[in-house]
Amino acid sequence: MKSIQIMPLRYVDSYLRLWYVNLKIVDQDGERYYAPDRLRCFRASIHRYLRDVRGTNLIGDDVFRRSNQTYNGMLRSIGDSFGYRAITASDMDKLCGYFDKSNPQKLQDEIFFLVMYHFGFRGRESIRALKKSDLIVSSENGVKCVDLVKDGAEKTITERDWTDGKQFRLFATDDARCPVAAVEMYLSKVPQQVSVLFPKPLKIKPGSENW
What we know:
two-stranded antiparallel sheet, 5 strands, single chain, three-stranded antiparallel sheet, MAVS, mainly alpha, about 10% strand, DUF3504 domain-containing protein
């Protein structure tokens, strides 16, 4: 096969059509399509290469019309079906094994995971704005729970619709993995004079009770 540097552009267009359709991740779980953003990155790299080496425009030139149609079709198809796989039970067991609350860093890591996993935060900007007062421990029908209140989160998560009056909530469980117990322990360990939810944790010696 000729190099893309000298191959006629109509052949490059044909190969790209096949490439877009067959580009997949293959691992122990089988094969699946790349995420739409990853496909966009691949195409952008090819576009820059063709522009610099051959002076052609992958995105705008008519010679690439058919491959661009295939590319856009793949984005629509993958976008409708793509989603991140749920954390497996075995991976969750590994996480819980790490979250043993033996030191400030591990306890904070557990609370960070609970907030990200259960409350659906997507970026660090929102996390930085959270305060201790944004997590409220209460009870519902005799069961302890943790609410993420509106005031601390709406400052940075503008796309969320809080008008329905719903709150994100964690409920207590009767085992060592109880998220409410972890939150209560964490809030009791953060110094009273500290208002942020995630201050820099202290480094302590193993077995020390001074946090």
